[in-house]
Structure formats: structure tokens, C-alpha cells
Design a protein that fits this description.
The protein is 69% helix and 6% strand. By secondary structure, it is mainly alpha-helical. Strands 1-2 form a two-stranded antiparallel ribbon. The longest helix has 35 residues.
């Protein structure tokens, strides 16, 4: 599953270049000093991955609550189905029912802090920019969050989102160094390919939830076998007799 997060992050980064590209282009990096610039870019990515890890931790905790109630498989299947539905539904539907409206104030605050941070050049600035960047709304991040929930574990959820963030690094780094290097035609082709990959990931979640016994892909659910083994010691005529009872 972590491999799927890495691939998802890499393919999703083509979309990220369009959405978060302006932030990457405006990073106040030191272009005259390559080593220092590399360190600044590293801090930016570290901030983003850290933000994604926190998001994964929180939603992994949510998934863990389902796991404790024995609903892990059902949750994984439901998330797979939901991912496919999100891709197949017309975009107008999401515009009509905008679920992110209650978060607009928080998003505005994040954007305001980003604008302030972009004007600075201190070492912590790049970490702050990356961290705030990680909390900006993005449809592909939402898809990755589904994977964190399906993990059913806080650590696995955090790792899933961290690997998603790591997958975005190569292309985002290229964008910082080369600017807007993708032409419109390439972007359109990639945007058409991303929904197909999301559907494939959704199918993978469904297969995983079914527990078909396929190693690593769809392992069988763990079943707990309860056995009782009693060793009783009785004292008869000052002699100890061991009685072994298996049920």
C-alpha cells in the first residue's frame, strides 16, 4: 500500500505543479549559491512531508476506530468504492456541494501566512512555507487521505501520507529549478491519466478489503483462535499428580 502512495504522489505531482507550482516558482531561494539553494529546497519539502504526515496521523486515528469495531474490511471496500465514485461523478456536482466551504476561513489564514513567509529568506521560512503548503486544499490529497483512513492504524496512516509527499518531490523540485517546464498538451494528457490511476487504486482497495488471500495485495483477515490448556495438580496421598486437560 505504501508503494501505491508513492506512485500516487508522483503522478499527482503533475497536478500539483499546476496547483502549487506558483508557490514553488516564488520560493525565495538563493539562486547564486547552489548548495544553499539545495538546503532551502530540502527544508521546503521537509515541511510539506511533515504536514502530510500529521494529516495521515489524524485520519489514521479515525481509521483505527473502525478497526477496533471490526469494520476494517468494510471500510477499505467503502473507501475504494468512494474513490471510484468521486472520479466518475461530474465536476459540477462537487461545485454544487462544496464540502470545503466551512474551511474557507482556515484556508484564507494559511494563504495569508504563506504570503508573509514568501517575503522572508530565513532558514525556517522554507520549512514554514512547505508546512503551510501541505495544508492547502487539493483533490489528490483528499484521495490520499482515503488511503490513510483505510490503513486502520495511526502509524500506517502517517506513513501513507508521508510516502505520498515523497512521491511529489521529484517533479516539484524540477519545477523549482526549471520553472514551468510542462507544456499545455503534456499537462492535459497527464490530467486524463490521473483519474484512471485513481480508479485503479480504488479497485486495489476493494480487492484488499475482500480478503482473497493474495499475499501483500489482499491478505486474509486475521482470525483469533481461542484454545484452553489446563494443567491441574492434585495431591493424593502426599503425592503430586499432574492432570493435563486440552479442549
Amino acid at each position: 500500500m505504501l508503494l501505491s502512495a508513492l506512485i500516487f504522489g508522483f503522478l499527482g505531482s503533475f497536478h500539483c505543479v499546476g496547483m502549487c507550482g506558483p508557490i514553488a516558482f516564488l520560493l525565495p531561494v538563493d539562486h547564486k549559491k547552489p548548495v544553499r539553494k539545495a538546503g532551502q529546497v530540502f527544508l521546503y519539502h521537509l515541511g510539506r512531508v511533515f504536514a502530510y504526515s500529521i494529516i495521515g496521523l489524524l485520519f489514521g486515528l479515525l481509521g483505527k476506530s473502525f478497526y477496533l469495531f471490526g469494520m476494517q474490511q468494510q471500510l477499505t471496500i467503502a473507501i475504494g468504492v468512494l474513490m471510484i465514485i468521486v472520479v466518475l461523478l461530474p465536476h459540477r456536482t462537487f461545485q454544487k456541494y462544496n464540502f470545503s466551504k466551512p474551511l474557507f476561513r482556515i484556508i484564507s489564514k494559511v494563504k495569508s501566512e504563506l504570503g508573509t513567509a514568501l517575503k522572508k529568506k530565513s532558514p525556517d521560512t522554507f520549512l514554514t512555507i512547505g508546512f503551510l503548503n501541505g495544508f492547502l486544499p487539493c483533490g489528490l490529497v483528499y484521495m490520499a487521505v482515503f488511503g490513510a483512513v483505510a490503513s486502520g492504524n495511526t502509524l500506517q496512516g502517517s506513513l501513507y501520507m508521508a510516502f505520498f509527499g515523497l512521491g511529489t518531490i521529484p517533479l516539484m523540485t524540477t519545477a523549482i529549478y526549471l520553472g514551468n517546464f510542462l507544456n499545455l498538451q503534456v499537462r492535459q494528457r497527464i490530467r486524463k491519466a490521473i483519474p484512471v490511476f485513481v480508479v485503479l487504486i480504488g479497485c486495489l482497495f476493494i480487492v484488499r478489503g475482500l480478503g482473497l488471500g493474495i499475499p501483500y495485495i489482499s491478505p486474509k483477515p486475521a482470525t483469533e483462535i481461542v484454545t484452553s490448556n489446563y494443567n491441574c495438580h492434585a495431591v493424593l496421598d502426599n503425592k503430586t499428580v499432574e492432570i493435563n486437560t486440552n479442549q
